[in-house]
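Exercise 7.
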Amino acid sequence: MQSSMIAPVMALVAWSLVIWLWMYVQRIPAMQKAGIKPQDARFPGSLDKLPDAARQAADNYNHLMEQPTIFYAAALAIQVAGHADDMAVRLAWAYVGLRVLHSLVQVSINLVAIRFLVFAVSTGVLAGMVVREMMRLI
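Solution. The predicted structure, written as tokens, is:
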């Protein structure tokens, strides 16, 4: 079976959708309890008074829309270039696993030092993917 970057890409997309759902499972009841109407949320910061659990899930969803976009581009570029060997796929899965771990930390204990460590390691894995591919292209 040929190595493919598509599975880890789709896994992170699916995880992002899980966090999206978790965000609304937390946010909607919290808004109702706080008496916040949906229209009241039209400006940034208007939901800052929600409990931590509702805000952490939303923050994590936003984080999954940031750096992972670089991962998607890199993973798909590696796939299109025909360089999706076992090491590239392992690095991609490592990145996905670390981003899932980052999410779990953020939506639960939310200790910034641990979250940052996981984020830094995931960034290193992503950088490794990109540098490795750049070396193959040069």
